[in-house]
Write a structure and sequence with these properties.
This protein is 0% helix and 53% strand. It is mainly β.
C-alpha cells in the first residue's frame, strides 16, 4: 500500500495563497482515491477535498469551494491542494489521505501545519 508525505505548510497572512503537496510511494498511486482533510486546534478532523483515481471527479467542502483546488499527477505520484484567499479559519494541520479503489480513506500522512494570520 502507499505511504504518504505532505509538505508545503507554513505561516502566511490572510489573503495569501499556498500549495500543499502529498507524495505517495510504495503502491500503485493511480488506484487510490485521494483526499485532503484538516484539523484545527481543539476541533475534530474535517473533510476539505477529494479527487478520484483519474483526477476527473473533484469534491469540496462548502467552506473551501471556490478558493481551494485539488489536483493530482499520477505520473509523479503526487496530489496537490492549491489554496487561495486564505482565511484565519483555514488554520490547522492538513492531512493527505488515500483510499484503495475508493474514498474509504484508511491511509494517512503525518500532516503539515498551515497557519493563517489575520
Amino acid at each position: 500500500q502507499v505511504q504518504l508525505v505532505e509538505s508545503g505548510g507554513r505561516l502566511v497572512q490572510a489573503g495569501a495563497s499556498l500549495r500543499l503537496s502529498c507524495a505517495a510511494s510504495g503502491g500503485t498511486f493511480s488506484s487510490y482515491g485521494m483526499g485532503w482533510f484538516r484539523q484545527a486546534p481543539g476541533k475534530a478532523r474535517e473533510f476539505v477535498a477529494r479527487i478520484d483515481m483519474l483526477g476527473s471527479g473533484k469534491w469540496y467542502a462548502d467552506s473551501v469551494k471556490g478558493r481551494f483546488t485539488i489536483s493530482r499527477d499520477n505520473a509523479e505520484n503526487l496530489v496537490f491542494l492549491q489554496m487561495n484567499s486564505l482565511k484565519p479559519e483555514d488554520t490547522g494541520v492538513y492531512y493527505c489521505a488515500a483510499g484503495h479503489l475508493s474514498f474509504n480513506f484508511k491511509i494517512w500522512g503525518q500532516g503539515t501545519q498551515v497557519t493563517v494570520s489575520s
